[in-house]
Amino acid sequence: xxxxxxxxxxxxxxxxxxxxxxxxxxxxxxxxxxxxxxxxxxxxxxxxxxxxxxxxxxxxxxxxxxxxxxxxxxxxxxxxxxxxxxxxxxxxxxxxxxxxxxxxxxxxxxxxxxxxxxxxxxxxxxxxxxxxxxxxxxxxxxxxxxxxxxxxxxxxxxxxxxxxxxxxxxxxxxxxxxxxxxxx
Length: 184
Known about the structure:
Elements: H1 2-11, H2 13-25, H3 28-48, H4 55-74, H5 78-81, H6 83-94, H7 107-112, H8 114-141, H9 144-183
Helix pairs in contact: 2-3, 3-4, 6-8, 8-9
């Protein structure tokens, strides 16, 4: 679980850096430039450390560079604010693959109720799309404080809540199924 949070922080580091610098300085050029440089430095650092980088890392870098360039060209921070929503859409598309979630649950869950795990995977994909649309709607307002609230509290809270509900629901379903098998 620690690795998952570290990876998420790494993926959204450029957005966090951008937001922090922009809120402190109110300078979109500076904030965007530092976010782009930070994203490039992250990839270079990972390569120097010998880490294998996946497609999503390079896609994230490309998004930061492209959206950052558009932000610099237009002097409009909304393009940088759209980056996390695009990432959520990409993750949502990946989550549409049937059974993707089976490798992330305990073996007893995957063996006992694979159909529920597959359904949960589709619900996670839907959640990613809803969060992505919400991020674009909030980013389009240009209100950085509202966007920060949305991305950290609303989107983060929705994921934590979904994880908790999924955990409890799958636990209850597995327990019920195992009791039914034991009785039979």
